[in-house]
Amino acid sequence: MKIIPLSEGTFTIDKTKVFVPFDTASDDLQQRPTGSLLVEVQPFVVITSKDVLLIDAGLGFSTNGELQIHQNLKVNSIQPEQITKVLMSHLHKDHAGGVSKKDRLGNFSLAFPNATYYVQKKEMAFAMDTGFPSFMTEEISVLQGSSNVVWLDGDGAIDGYIKYWLSSGHSPFHQVFLIEENGEKVFFGGDEAPQLGQMKRKFVAKYDYDGKKAQGLREKWWEEGRKEGWNFLFYHDIKTPMFAN
């Protein structure tokens, strides 16, 4: 498998849930509001013998009318139309902003028109009911009624080589993925395993739906990964997007 991180940059986020760009070379975290978290926003492409997978879809920011995630793909010689599957851990705006794109008339369409999107059905309902500021319902509503979406319910497998589990630590219907091919195992834990440092120490996050459960899951996955040689992908890690355990 080939793994390509698609960094959208480094940001701080505070209780307002607004993502503010942060330059690690010149900005001072102490000058940001108290309690600000420093995070990367980093979707991944995983190329297998069957698929060009996109795991989570970024913030959905655009430059000159083009989605940043589309720009990042093209830099890596991948056209958006080549993505075959989009695996969504959950629909918070920093993970799901790029599932759709807006035209000049303000209409939204799927950002990856040839892909099948895999989303927990109850996550979609929760997102639409909860709304702003955690979820941008206008951006994700395009998923509803689309023939490109496979609605998942609980745990299962996709095409026999992508396992998914309803983990429910960071948000009530959060899911994680384990991709297995030719003896390789790639694990994506979304916001329950967002950074390498959180895997190595006990850490209960106040921003999680069930912080203690998320902590326990990290310990479980880290141990399983150590035994089975998982390659971990970290969506919010500034320095270490990937780590082979």
Summarize the structure.
This protein is an alpha+beta fold and 245 residues long.
Plain-language structure description:
The protein has 245 residues and is an alpha+beta fold. It has one domain (2-244): Ribonuclease Z/Hydroxyacylglutathione hydrolase-like (Metallo-beta-lactamase, Chain A), CATH 3.60.15.10. The chain is built from 6 helices and 19 strands.
Number of helices, where a helix is a run of at least 4 consecutive DSSP H or I residues:
6
Question: Which spans have pLDDT < 50 for at least 5 consecutive residues?
Answer: none
Structural class: alpha+beta
Percent of residues in beta strands? 25-35%
Write the layout of secondary structure elements.
Blueprint: E1 2-5, E2 10-13, E3 20-21, E4 37-40, E5 44-47, E6 52-55, E7 62-63, E8 66-67, H1 68-75, E9 85-87, H2 93-96, E10 100-102, E11 108-110, E12 116-120, H3 121-130, H4 137-140, E13 149-152, E14 156-158, E15 162-166, E16 175-181, E17 184-188, H5 196-199, H6 211-228, E18 231-233, E19 242-244
Parallel strand pairs: 6-9, 9-12, 12-13, 17-18
Antiparallel strand pairs: 1-5, 2-3, 2-4, 5-6, 7-8, 10-11, 14-15, 15-16, 16-17, 18-19
Quick tags:
six-stranded mixed β-sheet; globular; 19 strands; 20% helix; 245 residues; alpha+beta
